[in-house]
Every structure is written in structure tokens, then in C-alpha cells.
Amino acid sequence: AVVSRRVREAVVSTQSTGQLTAPSVKMQTQLELIKMEKEEMERRVASLEKAKLHYKDSWTKALKELISVRERAQQDAKRRLHHEQSMMEHARLRYMSLEDHKLKDKAQLGEELENLKGELNRMKGQMEGPLNEIESTGHVLDKAAIARLIEERNSLLNTGVYTKEDQLIQDLNNKINSLQAS
């Protein structure tokens, strides 16, 4: 009975120690697995943090570049606008200069026209003297004098200053006609 009791105690103690050691090995294994999972999770967290920082840096760079591109585009637009405005101003000044030049040319042409008219009137005055003498004395002009008057009348018409309706041309025509009739 004592022996069987001892055997029983030994079996119970081995069972208890076996039970104690079996769960502790199982727990040790589970603890190791949990530690490994924890380490894996910490690596993932670190990797995600690194990716998050990289992503944040990339976005920051992209936004800075976008701002830079917009600023350059605005500066280019301002430069183009300023250039176009200066070109418009230059064109306006050239146009005004041309207009002033045209007005000066027109005034100069008017002066020249007046000078030519004055010279023609002076020539007319010089011509009237001899014609009046011829008319008053009743002499008939020869063909050379008529040809000279016709040539002067035609040269006056060819200048473009006088037309057939101008008084000077009509006077010359009348004198030519009267001389041809006499």
C-alpha cells in the first residue's frame, strides 16, 4: 500500500510536472510567436512611418513645384503683357510721327503749290503786258506767238495745279481764240 501510494504520488507528481512543463512549453512557443509578430508589426509600423514621411515630402515638393510653375507663368504673362504694351505704345508713337510727318508734308506741299500759283500769276502778269499791247495796236500775231501761248497753256495744265475751269487758263484760251480770229 505504501509502495502503491508512492507510485501514485510519483505518477501524480510526474503528471503534474508534465502538465506544468507541457503548458509552459506551449506558452513559451506562443510567447515566442507573439514576440515575433510584435517585431513584424514594429517593422511594418516603421516602414509605414518611413513611407508616410516619403509621401509627405513628395507632396511638399510637388506643391512647391506647382507654386513655382504658377509664379513663373504669372511672371511670363506679365512680361508678355508689358512687351505688348510697349509695342503698342511704340506703334502709336510711330503712327503719330507719321501723321505729323504727313501734316508737315501736306503743309509743305501747300506752300509749294501757293508758290507755283504765285509764280504762274506773275508769269501771267508778264504775259498780259505784251498781249495787251498786241491787242491794243491791232496787230495780228503770227503763228509762232500763238504756238507759244498754246504751249504755255498746256504746260500749266500739265502741272496739275490748274484745270480748264481756272480763270488763268480761260483767259489764255480767250486770248488764243481772239488772236486766231484776227
Notable features of this structure?
182 residues, mainly alpha, 3 helices, rod-shaped
Q: Could you give the topology of this structure?
A:
Layout: H1 2-137, H2 143-159, H3 167-181
Helix pairs in contact: 2-3
Number of strands: 0
- List low-pLDDT spans: none
N to C succession of SSEs: HHH
Q: What level of helicity do the residues show?
A: over 70%
For the termini, the CA-CA separation is 194 Å
Number of helices, counting only DSSP H or I runs of 4 residues or more:
3
How many whole angstroms does the radius of gyration measure?
Answer: 62 Å
Structure characterization notes:
By secondary structure, this protein is mainly α. Helices cover about 90% and strands about 0% of the residues. The chain is built from three helices and no strands. α2 packs antiparallel against α3. The longest helix has about 140 residues, at about 1-135. It is rod-shaped. The chain starts with a helix and ends with a helix. The mean pLDDT is about 80.
Produce a short descriptive summary.
The chain has 182 residues and is mainly alpha-helical. The protein has three helices and no strands. 92% of the residues lie in helices and 0% in strands.
